Amino acid sequence: MGRFCGPTSFSLTVAGLRARQIAFNAETVDVTNADSAGHWRELLAGAGVRRAAVSGAGVFRDQASDLRLRQIFFDGLIETFQVVVPGFGTIEGPFQITALEYRGDHAGEVTFDMSLDSAGLLAFAAA
Description:
It comes from Methylobacterium radiodurans. The chain is mostly beta strands and 127 residues long. The protein has one helix at residues 63-75, and strands spanning 2-5, 13-26, 50-60, 78-85, 89-103, 111-118, 123-126.
């Protein structure tokens, strides 16, 4: 189980995640030209746009954390979040909540699904 902390202005663990996914992506910059060896594609190292997407499902810690994240979503704010994944590491930086879904049944707890997209420079610390 992972831990979702944030925004840092809130500085509390707001949810325990039962399922999660982290995706790191980078666009490439093609610099292939007529002089490229063997006409193989060449890429420019260190260039391109990088992004991270985090999604998870779980339960909120309390009503206040649910309210805070819901307000961030409806206001379209970008906040600094921290995602802790045991055995993997910690990712921290600016994110925007891009999806927030709730579900539950009459006899059980209310659960949520949430997606975050990076909105700036991220820091990663391995576990």
